[in-house]
């Protein structure tokens, strides 16, 4: 007979999110306006705004979401979702997601900080591992590298200029004109993120009829022919704010 652990199990998903699998003591969420604001795990409670260490890595709790995995209830605890910059701007630096440790130590991409405006900013979890130290050294050698600093002992921030060949694409992103990105860069976006031509990103880039119909049905409106099929970025979400992560 399988015995369920009394303690909840906390598992990192990526550099922004960890999962909680409730133990024998269960989990009891508290809601305000349909939003989970705390999670009672029997022997302790997690609140929005807390900082929780998972395998010695701190996670700022800004979101608690209940999901079902198989037949099991799992709670995903996150500091922040991926920014739009992570989708549309990050690939301007070239390379691949694997090269940039996108699925492990990469946290988020931004278009600026309080000090640096209209740049490409990458936030990573710091690691003393030799591979990461070599990676950090390599990023400092990038042609557009401007600065690197630690907003906390657990994070490191890299700042780059927007590559000259992508300045027009950068402006299109700022204005939410995704369909006006250069054709070669659209291909780069799909390749970088591993998406195919029928996926959601391609439907945004090429203003697909399928996506337009779906939006019109869900919003119960008729969209103008020239309207973009994805919302423009919110600048506040795309500027690095240390209070969200640290």
The average pLDDT is: 93
> In angstroms, what separates the terminal alpha carbons?
42 Å
Number of domain modules: 2
Sheet having the most strands:
4 strands, antiparallel
The portion of residues forming beta strands comes to 25-35%
Specify Rg, calculated over alpha carbons: 20 Å
Total number of strands: 13
Secondary-structure element series = EEEEEEEEEHEEHEEHHHHHH
Low-confidence stretches: none
**SS class:** alpha+beta
Continuous helix count: 8
The 3D shape can be described as: globular
Query: Fraction of residues in helices?
Result: 10-25%
Strands of the largest sheet, in order across it?
1-2-9-8
What is the topology?
Blueprint: E1 9-12, E2 17-21, E3 28-32, E4 35-40, E5 45-47, E6 51-54, E7 57-60, E8 63-69, E9 72-78, H1 84-88, E10 106-110, E11 120-125, H2 130-140, E12 145-152, E13 155-160, H3 167-174, H4 183-193, H5 200-205, H6 209-219, H7 235-238, H8 242-245
Search tags:
246 residues; alpha+beta; 2 domains; four-stranded antiparallel beta sheet; 8 helices; 13 strands; 28% strand; globular
Provide structural commentary:
This protein is α+β, with helices and mostly antiparallel strands. It has helices at 84-88, 130-140, 167-174, 183-193, 200-205, 209-219, 235-238, 242-245, and strands at 9-12, 17-21, 28-32, 35-40, 45-47, 51-54, 57-60, 63-69, 72-78, 106-110, 120-125, 145-152, 155-160. Strands 1-2-9-8 form a 4-stranded antiparallel β-sheet, with no helix packed on it. Strands 10-11-13-12 form a 4-stranded antiparallel β-sheet. The longest helix has 11 residues, at 130-140. It is globular. The N and C termini lie far apart (42 Å). The model has no long low-confidence stretch (mean pLDDT 93).
């Amino acid at each position: 007979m399988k015995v369920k652990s009394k303690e909840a199990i906390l598992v990192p998903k990526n550099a922004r999110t960890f999962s909680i699998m409730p133990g024998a003591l269960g989990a009891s969420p508290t809601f305000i306006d349909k939003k989970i604001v705390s999670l009672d795990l029997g022997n302790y409670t997690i609140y929005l705004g807390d900082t929780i260490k998972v395998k010695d890595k701190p996670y700022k709790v800004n979101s608690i979401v209940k999901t079902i995995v198989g037949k099991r209830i799992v709670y995903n605890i996150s500091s922040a979702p991926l920014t739009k910059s992570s989708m549309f701007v990050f690939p301007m630096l070239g390379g691949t997601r694997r090269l940039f440790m996108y699925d492990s130590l990469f946290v988020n991409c931004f278009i600026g900080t309080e000090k640096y405006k209209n740049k490409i900013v990458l936030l990573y979890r710091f690691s003393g591992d030799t591979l990461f130290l070599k990676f950090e050294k390599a990023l400092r050698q990038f042609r557009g590298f401007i600065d690197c600093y630690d907003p906390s002992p657990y994070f490191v921030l890299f700042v780059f200029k927007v590559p000259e060949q992508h300045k027009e694409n950068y402006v299109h992103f700022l204005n939410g004109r995704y369909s006006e990105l250069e054709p070669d860069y659209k291909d780069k976006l799909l390749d970088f993120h591993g998406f195919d031509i029928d996926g959601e990103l391609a439907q945004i880039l090429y203003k697909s009829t399928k996506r337009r119909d779906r939006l019109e049905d869900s919003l119960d409106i008729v969209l103008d022919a020239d309207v973009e099929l994805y919302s423009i970025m919110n600048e506040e979400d795309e500027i690095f704010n240390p209070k969200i992560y640290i």
